[in-house]
Amino acid sequence: GAGVSQSPRYKVAKRGQDVALRCDPISGHVSLFWYQQALGQGPEFLTYFQNEAQLDKSGLPSDRFFAERPEGSVSTLKIQRTQQEDSAVYLCASSFWLPGLAIYNEQFFGPGTRLTVL
Amino acid sequence: GQQLNQSPQSMFIQEGEDVSMNCTSSSIFNTWLWYKQDPGEGPVLLIALYKAGELTSNGRLTAQFGITRKDSFLNISASIPSDVGIYFCAGQRNTPLVFGKGTRLSVIA
Q1: Do A42 and B33 touch (CB under 8 A)?
Q2: Which end of chain B is more exposed for a tag (fewer CB within 10 A), N or C?
């Protein structure tokens, strides 16, 4: 497809379950980002990949959150032992990174996965 | 996590009116961005600002990068019903974006 796609679009989990959220970035985009958006809030940064390398995971809220991008394309965000406070929309974004370019590399966002933990 | 101070939180305006919203930060940013998010969708970039003092227009939208690099505003002129949505400012210093909490715009026809 032409844009960033995410699946599933909606996920309901019981507290304590593990979940896996998938992101398919725009073809050729080197950089991939995960954001968490709580209800009524702006997106908050979770983690960032450049190709398969996870360069920044400072935003992951706990060690229950894990992200991977093994082949530098599709990424999966995994949340173990989900808690109610994990309920949010999880947004994925990708950008075409150009080394040494000072100008902003636009991040294109997917539609998000809405996670509800009961 | 850090979020920018964005105001107002919500606005109800008549179709045809102009709209203004702003964003402030305690930190300096190298880039300021304005996004619009529709229900069930991800944010879509409206305007990007790269230099302090820069004033940029995109159709009916005008945005400015504050001279102190700690603030930005967005103006929408002659609002129309499709302007309804949530507008977010975002600042960038390194790679991840830091977002505001959003301004929810409602347009009354």
Answers
A1: no
A2: C
How long is chain B? 109
Cβ of A104 within 8 Å of Cβ of B48? The answer is yes
**B101·A59 Cβ contact <8 A:** no
Task: Tell me the pLDDT band of A100, cut-offs 50, 70 and 90.
Answer: low
Residue whose entry in the numeric block shows the structure tokens 């996965």: A113
Write the pLDDT tens digit of every residue in B14-51: 999 999 999 999 999 999 999 999 999 999 999 999 99
pLDDT tens, residue by residue, B62-87: 999 999 999 999 999 999 999 999 99
CB interface of A with B, residues 78-107, below 8 Å? 91, 93, 102-104, 106-107
Distance from CA of A43 to the nearest CA of B (A): 6
Contact A111 B102 (CB under 8 A): no
CA distance B66 to chain A (A): 17
SS3 of A10-26: the string is EEEECCCCCEEEEEECC
Query: Two tokens at B97?
Result: 């974006």
Place of tokens 């304005």: B34
> Can you read off the two tokens belonging to residue B9?
């939180």
- Cα separations (Å) of B103 from A30, A109, B8? 31, 19, 6
Which one of B38, B54, B99 would you mutate to disrupt binding with A, by most A Cβ within 10 Å of its Cβ? B99
